[in-house]
Amino acid sequence: MKNTIQQFNQKLLLLAEHIGLLVIAFATAVAMAAEVMVMVNAMQVTLADLLLLFLYLEVFAMVGAYYRSGKLPVRFPLYIGMVALARYLILDIKGMEDWRMLAITGSILLLTVAVLVVRFGHVHYPYPNDE
After folding, report:
1. C-alpha distances in angstroms, 32 versus 11, 40, 44, 92, 98?
2. Band of the pLDDT at 109, cuts 50, 70, 90?
3. Where do the structural domains in the chain lie, given as residue ranges?
4. Which H or E run includes 34?
5. Residue from 90, 85, 127 nearest 107 by CA
């Protein structure tokens, strides 16, 4: 009985994960299409637009990586954070105070170091294969 309930709960959680991933992928596709329409209507593409599209692609890559491996690499959200901060910096740099600019660039540097640490740990201390 306990095993049956456990299996049911696992299947239910797996279904919720897949539905959530589908919602994320669909919402990302809609947002990406809306951004492309904004660029088409404005008849111009800015660096901020490209960075936003890159953020959307990173979200798609994260969903795809989860479907391929069943695991979510920690590096993907870190990459998304770096690009999001860079986009914020580019959009608001003219009206930004020096301390805020330093804080954002410091945050990007900190995320970069985190990616390096995670990658170093993954290469030098890999997880044993789950059998």
Report:
1. 31, 12, 16, 22, 32
2. very high
3. 2-124
4. helix 2-42
5. 85
